[in-house]
Backbone:
């Protein structure tokens, strides 16, 4: 089993040996390996059971590292980096050839981000290579937001989990790049669109497929619990499933359903706070997947701010039901 601890020196040693370590970030936990070592990168794909056409984000300690791995750092993206790093923003930049093909799945751009977490920062600043790190979940499943989530699924496959507590943001980073000098968002995430637009003006949203923005239409199902997950108007769903005598649990934004047992419902934010809802989302989906009833009933959040990113995850979770 993986050792769980807060020892960044031990974590760094494993990484230098080409082994993998789960690391906390402010968004979700990552499954990290040396991004410049193709064998370590291959091990990431194998451990996650991830298809090799789905490229990885590399994590660096500061914006100063970016020119080591990219041919060009356009002004608009540089402005975003200056404002939002460290933070839940990933930039797609033209890659240098020192980044292995496997990291980018052969694409010409590399995804780069500076995470905002003291342990991730402490670790990265001690390493002389960037960390390739997808979310530390088996491919297609819900991203982990605690060390225990990682242990439950990858605990037998990796030597060390760096425990940084619960992730503050709870949604993956927002992925941004340029097309013909226009700013494009490829994945909605923990950094809100309005914040980006305040800096660079109107953006284009091309959120075709979270798992491969370069191949629209692929893999709509993602972030998915194993139990069937239904999205809609909760009162109605509750009535329908009740009539059909199907054992359900409920995931709501702020509302409590008095006629449903406490352990059969999770309220994401009693105060209707989208930030709090985002931080609780993935843990709540896991809890209802592991305990609770046979199916999960859920509702969309208000379609503003972080609500848009949360709704994207909810829709993908529901896509296979
Ligand atoms: O918040 C996050 O971004 C977390 C933490 C650990 O940093 N990481 C994460 O990684 O969510 P992952 O691998 O689960 O999702 C990365 C997404 C994938 O959908 C992938 O297709 C996209 O980033 N991506 C990575 N490199 C890309 C590239 N070169 N071009 C287009 N999309 C890319
Ligand atoms: Mg992921």
Residues:
């Amino acid at each position: 089993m993986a050792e769980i601890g807060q020892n960044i020196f031990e974590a760094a040693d494993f990484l230098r040996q080409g082994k993998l370590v789960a690391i906390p970030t402010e968004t979700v936990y990552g499954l990290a390996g040396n991004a410049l070592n193709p064998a370590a990168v291959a091990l990431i794909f194998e451990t996650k059971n991830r298809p090799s056409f789905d490229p990885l984000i590399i994590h660096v300690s500061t914006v100063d590292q970016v020119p080591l791995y990219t041919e060009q750092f356009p002004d608009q993206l540089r402005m975003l980096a200056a404002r939002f790093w460290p933070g839940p923003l990933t930039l797609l930049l033209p890659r240098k050839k020192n980044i292995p093909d496997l990291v980018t799945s052969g694409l010409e751009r590399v995804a780069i981000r500076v995470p905002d977490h003291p342990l991730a920062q402490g670790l990265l600043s001690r390493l002389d290579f960037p960390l390739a790190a997808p979310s530390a979940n088996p491919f297609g499943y819900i991203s982990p937001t605690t060390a225990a989530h990682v242990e439950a699924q990858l605990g037998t496959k990796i030597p060390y989990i760096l425990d940084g507590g619960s992730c503050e943001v709870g949604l993956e980073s927002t992925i941004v790049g340029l097309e013909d000098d226009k700013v494009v968002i490829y994945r909605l995430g923990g950094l809100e669109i309005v914040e980006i637009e305040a800096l660079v003006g109107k953006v284009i949203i091309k959120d075709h497929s979270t798992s491969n923005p370069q191949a629209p239409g692929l893999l709509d199902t993602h972030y998915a619990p194993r139990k069937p997950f239904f999205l809609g108007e909760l009162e109605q769903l509750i009535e329908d499933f009740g009539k059909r005598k199907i054992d359900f649990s409920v995931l709501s934004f702020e509302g409590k359903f008095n006629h449903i047992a406490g352990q059969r419902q999770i309220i994401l934010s009693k105060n209707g706070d989208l930030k709090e809802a985002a931080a609780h989302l993935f843990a709540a989906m896991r809890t209802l997947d592991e305990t609770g009833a046979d199916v999960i009933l859920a509702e969309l959040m208000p379609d503003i701010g972080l609500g848009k990113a949360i709704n994207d995850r909810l829709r993908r979770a529901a896509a296979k039901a």
Q: What stands out?
A: The chain has a mean pLDDT of 94. The two ends are 33 Å apart (CA to CA). The first strand starts at residue 3 and ends at 5.
